[in-house]
Amino acid sequence: MPPTDARPASNTAWPPQSLAGLELFRGLEPAALAEVMAAALVRAVPRHTPLFHQGDPAQHCHALLSGGVRVSQTNAAGAQVALRFIGAGEMFGTVPLFTDRLYPADAETVADSVEIRWTEATLRQLITRHPAIALNLVTVIGRRLMEVQDRLREVTTGRVEQRLARALLRLAARGTASAAGTALAFPLTRKDLAELSGTTLHTASRTLAAWEKRGWLSSGRPNGRARITLHDQAALAAMAEDGRE
Amino acid sequence: MPPTDARPASNTAWPPQSLAGLELFRGLEPAALAEVMAAALVRAVPRHTPLFHQGDPAQHCHALLSGGVRVSQTNAAGAQVALRFIGAGEMFGTVPLFTDRLYPADAETVADSVEIRWTEATLRQLITRHPAIALNLVTVIGRRLMEVQDRLREVTTGRVEQRLARALLRLAARGTASAAGTALAFPLTRKDLAELSGTTLHTASRTLAAWEKRGWLSSGRPNGRARITLHDQAALAAMAEDGRE
DNA sequence: CGGCGTATTGAACCAGGTCAACGTGCGTGG
DNA sequence: CCACGCACGTTGACCTGGTTCAATACGCCG
């Protein structure tokens, strides 16, 4: 079934903390937030649904209220790279509105999700009326730039184990901690992890199996197969640091 | 000798096309440009001078009026990655003003250069008075994000020759074309090229030697040792495409 | 002209990719 | 509710691009 757009039944009824969680609108007064909310389109999207494709004309600024989205690029030869996993409260697909107007990547849900979005015209109006949004945008994109630069450094200087460890730690920062460990926020296959850390699913599988044996993490039960829980972030951090256990 | 700061002797006397070339201030009216100019600090910097270091507190928005700057990161183990080479008219070192206020990289001139910069306070004032600057900033940083994402994809999916070819083509886009070929805008050692394309200077040297033998480019004479001229961009583009010649 | 940073080139090694074959748990449909 | 099928995961054996180590040559600057 195709996902359907809808305004929230009542603007004020929609959880305001969803918006407060969006860094893009940080620091706006309640009145402005209400305005932002009123202009938004919200839709529920089942998992494994494409939200946009590489090369499509960019028409919206997207964000996620719940669920998870994989943003990935495919090169000419068909090889995939995962650029980023988007969790609740994160923005995505917004940069091309300000550059070449073409989505540079694919986006697809990896879990049942609720997406919120604004058309480009709406976003520009909002920015005009509330210039703070533009500065927030610079902050968000700037942080993302720095993160990708970090990954570029890792991938050219480090070994696979380091990158895999760091990828897990980055995901853990957005996961939920409990006594049993930190559960990652969305399901990730070995292939996902491989594409995130720049390796093959074979190597990723071997490495994860080794770490699971050491008790650093566990995958699978008691949730779906692709649910990963970290038990020893310190060990992973050490691995990410010096690449030697 | 330490580089010295100076206001241009006369604001209006300073070449206005320098500013017009800065995408950051694109679309501003002449009066606004004059304002920007009046607030700028300009200094001449000899080659091989550090402009800032990784980890330093970020205090300025920088741009280059002439010359060249290498922006690079060093990891814990001391390995270097070149994030970007900055040419005339390009902005750099501005992102951390909006994120964590710490330069994430080193910047050092690779040729005698003229730098123009604004303090953070000045930049914020300018943005407040001319909101278009904030949107230009989003565009510039967004484009850079997309470029780094491209490099990340290349480095994880492609072979060394492809990355080297692409690095050269990217640099050529900012070089000067003539009958003899396209001369790159600043001197680049084999090590620079290696750090740009994520390989070792040994492999870079071997590859460049092979390409020089095929007539795709030439290096060294008649300029300094590290001056590179491309003669067959089509061949390099083919190499960048499919990685097989 | 002497010395040092840069470049070239050869040889050996190895991390990780590739190819191949086999498990296994999840979801679906009967 | 159970059984079947398939997508996902695991594991082993082999292969190779590119790094590493090492040694020599070049060219620029003082």
**β content of chain A, as a range?**
15-25%
Question: Unreliable segments of chain A (pLDDT under 50, ≥5 consecutive)?
Answer: 7-16
Distance between the termini of chain A: 48 Å
Indicate the percent of residues in helices of chain A: 25-40%
Instruction: Report the CATH architecture of the largest domain in chain A.
Output: Sandwich
User: If you average the pLDDT of chain A, what whole number results?
Assistant: 89
Using the alpha-carbon principal axes, give the shape of chain A. Answer: globular
CATH topology of the largest domain in chain A: Jelly Rolls
Oligomer: homodimer
Structural class of chain A: alpha+beta
**Order of H and E elements of chain A:** HHEEEEEEHHHEEHHEEH
Radius of gyration of chain A (Å): 19 Å
Q: How many structural domains can be distinguished in the coordinates of chain A?
A: 2
Which pair of protein chains has the largest interface, and what are the residue counts?
A-B, 40 and 40 residues
Number of helices of chain A: 8
CATH class term of the largest domain in chain A: Mainly Beta
Main β-sheet of chain A, in a few words? 6 strands, antiparallel
Strand tally of chain A: 10
Q: What's the CATH H-level superfamily name of the largest domain in chain A?
A: Jelly Rolls
